[in-house]
Amino acid sequence: MGPLIAILGVVIIVVVAVLGYGAAGYAYSQGRLNNAKNTYNGVIDHEKKYADAMDSLAGAVNKVDLNTATTAQLQQTKTTISQFIDSAQQTKTQIEADDASLAGASSDLQQNQWLTAIDKSEIDKALTRIGHLRKAMADAKVVTDDYAQDGAFFESLYDVLIDFDSIGSQSGAAAVITAVSKLKTDANKATSLDKAPGLPAEFDAYLKDVQKLADDFTVYLAAAATGDQAAADAAKAAADSDAAKVDAHDLTKMYTQLGAFYQPMIDDFNSEIQKANNT
Question: For residue 255, what pLDDT is reported?
Answer without folding.
Answer: 87
